[in-house]
C-alpha cells in the first residue's frame, strides 16, 4: 500500500538533490497525483494511443517506468498478438515495486521489467515508446542521443509518447504557469515549506525544455510529425510519429 507523501514536510537542514530512492518509491503514487496536473488523464491516454499504434509482434517500451502506471495502462489496452512490453528504470526501489504491480494483474501481453540506465538499453522493432516525465532528468546531450536511438529502433509509423514539464520563453507566462502549478499543489495539501523544499531538491536534477525545443529536436531527428496532445499549466504530453 502506497503511503502519504510527507518527505519534505519537516525542515531539512542540508538539502540534497532529489533521488528516486525507497522513500520516494513508497509514496510515489500520492506524490505524482498531487504534484503533476492531469497525470491520470495522461496515463489513460497512453493506453489509448498504445492500442491504436501497437503492431503485431512488436516491442513496446516504457523508459523510466517508475511503478509501471503507463505499462499497466498499455497492457490493458493492447489488442494485437505477439506484443511484448519492456519496462525500464534505474531505481532498484522503483523496479522492485513495479514488478509487484505488474505481477498483480494477469494479461496475454508479457512484461519484462529491467533495472538499467535507459541510455544503455537497445531499442529494437518498436511500435510504441513511452518517455513519461523521464527525458527531463537527462542532460541535453543525452536527450538528443536517446531520442535518436528511439527513432532508429521504431518501425515506420511507430509512435513516441513524450510527457514533460515545460518552460516558456515569455517570462510573464512562464511565471504565471509556475504559480498556477504551485496553487495546484497547495490545493492538494502541500505546505509552502514542502513546495519550497521540493523545488530546491529537484531544480538541479530536472531541467525542462520548451515545447519549441522539443518540436525542433524531434523534427531534426527525422520524426514526420509531432504535436502536443495534452497540456495543463506547465505540464503536458506530446506524440511524435516516425
From TrEMBL:
<feature type="binding site">
    <location>
        <position position="39"/>
    </location>
    <ligand>
        <name>S-adenosyl-L-methionine</name>
    </ligand>
</feature>
<keyword id="KW-0489">Methyltransferase</keyword>
<comment type="subunit">
    <text>Homodimer.</text>
</comment>
<dbReference type="GO" id="GO:0032259">
    <property type="term" value="P:methylation"/>
</dbReference>
<keyword id="KW-0808">Transferase</keyword>
<feature type="binding site">
    <location>
        <begin position="89"/>
        <end position="90"/>
    </location>
    <ligand>
        <name>S-adenosyl-L-methionine</name>
    </ligand>
</feature>
<comment type="function">
    <text>Catalyzes the conversion of S-adenosyl-L-methionine (SAM) to carboxy-S-adenosyl-L-methionine (Cx-SAM).</text>
</comment>
<feature type="binding site">
    <location>
        <position position="199"/>
    </location>
    <ligand>
        <name>S-adenosyl-L-methionine</name>
    </ligand>
</feature>
<dbReference type="GO" id="GO:1904047">
    <property type="term" value="F:S-adenosyl-L-methionine binding"/>
</dbReference>
<feature type="binding site">
    <location>
        <begin position="117"/>
        <end position="118"/>
    </location>
    <ligand>
        <name>S-adenosyl-L-methionine</name>
    </ligand>
</feature>
<keyword id="KW-0949">S-adenosyl-L-methionine</keyword>
<feature type="binding site">
    <location>
        <begin position="64"/>
        <end position="66"/>
    </location>
    <ligand>
        <name>S-adenosyl-L-methionine</name>
    </ligand>
</feature>
<feature type="domain" description="Methyltransferase">
    <location>
        <begin position="60"/>
        <end position="158"/>
    </location>
</feature>
<dbReference type="GO" id="GO:0008168">
    <property type="term" value="F:methyltransferase activity"/>
</dbReference>
<dbReference type="InterPro" id="IPR041698">
    <property type="entry name" value="Methyltransf_25"/>
</dbReference>
<dbReference type="Pfam" id="PF13649">
    <property type="entry name" value="Methyltransf_25"/>
</dbReference>
<comment type="similarity">
    <text>Belongs to the class I-like SAM-binding methyltransferase superfamily. Cx-SAM synthase family.</text>
</comment>
<dbReference type="InterPro" id="IPR029063">
    <property type="entry name" value="SAM-dependent_MTases_sf"/>
</dbReference>
<feature type="binding site">
    <location>
        <position position="132"/>
    </location>
    <ligand>
        <name>S-adenosyl-L-methionine</name>
    </ligand>
</feature>
<protein>
    <recommendedName>
        <fullName>Carboxy-S-adenosyl-L-methionine synthase</fullName>
        <ecNumber>2.1.3.-</ecNumber>
    </recommendedName>
</protein>
<dbReference type="GO" id="GO:0016743">
    <property type="term" value="F:carboxyl- or carbamoyltransferase activity"/>
</dbReference>
<dbReference type="GO" id="GO:0002098">
    <property type="term" value="P:tRNA wobble uridine modification"/>
</dbReference>
<dbReference type="InterPro" id="IPR005271">
    <property type="entry name" value="CmoA"/>
</dbReference>
Amino acid at each position: 500500500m502506497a503511503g502519504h507523501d510527507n518527505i519534505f514536510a519537516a525542515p531539512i537542514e542540508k538539502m540534497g538533490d532529489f533521488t528516486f530512492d525507497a522513500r520516494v518509491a513508497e509514496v510515489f503514487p500520492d506524490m505524482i497525483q498531487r504534484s503533476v496536473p492531469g497525470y491520470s488523464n495522461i496515463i489513460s491516454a497512453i493506453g489509448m494511443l498504445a492500442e491504436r499504434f501497437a503492431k503485431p509482434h512488436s516491442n513496446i517500451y516504457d523508459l523510466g517506468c517508475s511503478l509501471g502506471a503507463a505499462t499497466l495502462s498499455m497492457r490493458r489496452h493492447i489488442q494485437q498478438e505477439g506484443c511484448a512490453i519492456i519496462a525500464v528504470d534505474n531505481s532498484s526501489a522503483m523496479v522492485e515495486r513495479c514488478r509487484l504491480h505488474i505481477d498483480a494483474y494477469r494479461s496475454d501481453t508479457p512484461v519484462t521489467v529491467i533495472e538499467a540506465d535507459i541510455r544503455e538499453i537497445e531499442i529494437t522493432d518498436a511500435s510504441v515508446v513511452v518517455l513519461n516525465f523521464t527525458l527531463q532528468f537527462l542532460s541535453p546531450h543525452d536527450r538528443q542521443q536517446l531520442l535518436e536511438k528511439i527513432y532508429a529502433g521504431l518501425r515506420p509509423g511507430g509512435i513516441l509518447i513524450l510527457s514533460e514539464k515545460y518552460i516558456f520563453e515569455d517570462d510573464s507566462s512562464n511565471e504565471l504557469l509556475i504559480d498556477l502549478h504551485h496553487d495546484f499543489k497547495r490545493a492538494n495539501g502541500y505546505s509552502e515549506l514542502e513546495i519550497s523544499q521540493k523545488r530546491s531538491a529537484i531544480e538541479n536534477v530536472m531541467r525542462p525544455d520548451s515545447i519549441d525545443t522539443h518540436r525542433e529536436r524531434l523534427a531534426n531527428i527525422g520524426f514526420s510529425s509531432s504535436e502536443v496532445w495534452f497540456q495543463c499549466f506547465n505540464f503536458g504530453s506530446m506524440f511524435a510519429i516516425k
